[in-house]
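hey can u check if this looks right to u? its 143 residues, i copy pasted from the old doc so theres a chance i mangled smth
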Amino acid sequence: MGIGYFVDKTKPPTEEDLQTAMGEAYPLWAGLTAWLAETFLIEGQLTYGGKNYGWNRWYKRSGRAVTTLYPQVDGFTAQVVLGKVEVEQALTLPLGERVAALVRETPQFHDGRWLFIRVESEQDLADVRRLLELKPRPRKKVI
């Protein structure tokens, strides 16, 4: 079984499809996507990740991934990849028990720890934001 819900390559989900699938968790998705646009000055790109990942919203900046969001039934999963320095910083953050355990227990690969965080609550959303705040952000232009 794959991580994504929308796995038909020929049918990208509409915003209405996303809202229907995620149900009560859709405001968490909407809040995170708005925060990403404001904080990182990027809009997510709808991409197809294959039959195991399905359609997702991929956020990248300067050729590097910030996060990927996978819509699912009654929630969504945020993929956050942390490098070694970011993991050290993440271990000191006030995270919820479940996400803190993911940070501690996920194996470290050469390109980082690949965290797949199921977002179903405000706590999950806050934890994802805290982790993403460890990523480099663009400098805001001063006028």
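Strands lie at 45-48, 55-61, 64-72, 75-82, 113-119.
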